[in-house]
Amino acid sequence: MAWIALLVAGVLEIVWAFLMKQSDGFTRPVPTILTIVAMIASFGLLAVAMRSLPLGTAYTVWTGIGAVGAFVVGVVVLGEALSPARVIAALLILTGLVLMKTSSPA
Predict the structure, then answer these.
(1) How many Cα atoms sit within 13 Å of 17 on the Cβ side?
(2) Would you say the C-alpha torsion 55, 2, 67, 97 has a positive or negative sign?
(3) pTM for the complete prediction?
């Protein structure tokens, strides 16, 4: 159950990062409010996951999901530049996430 909570928390991190971009520096009310709601939900689920997962594993996986997900959303939805170096960096993060998951005792 902790891993599911962590996965959802990571997805919500992607959501709030995208919405923060859409808020235009917190000048647009609806994206700003949705950003805050997604942040609170993400942090809450991260806290639930940390009840049984090690801190280092939970936090690393949460930020990694957010980082890679935000990268993908940036490229696919926002049309940000895609370069071989950025793809390699994202793959390295994913590799780290897999290693954290497979080496976690929980």
Answers:
(1) 21
(2) positive
(3) 0.88
Residue type present at position 45: L
Return all residues near 53 (Cβ < 8 A) that are at least 6 apart: 2, 3, 6, 104, 106
**What residue ranges do the domains of the chain occupy?**
2-103
Could you tell me if 61 and 97 are in contact, meaning their C-beta atoms sit under 8 angstroms apart? yes
The beta strand positions in the chain, using DSSP E, are none
The C-alpha atoms of residue 61 and residue 31 are separated, in whole angstroms, by: 25
CA nearest neighbour of 68 among 9, 23, 10, 6: 10
As a whole number of angstroms, the distance between CA 98 and CA 37 comes to: 28
Q: Is the dihedral of CA 45, 71, 55, 16 positive or negative?
A: negative
**Each residue of 21-51: pLDDT tens digit?**
999 999 999 999 999 999 999 999 999 999 9
Residue type, 76: V
Q: Which helix (H) or strand (E) holds 88?
A: helix 84-103
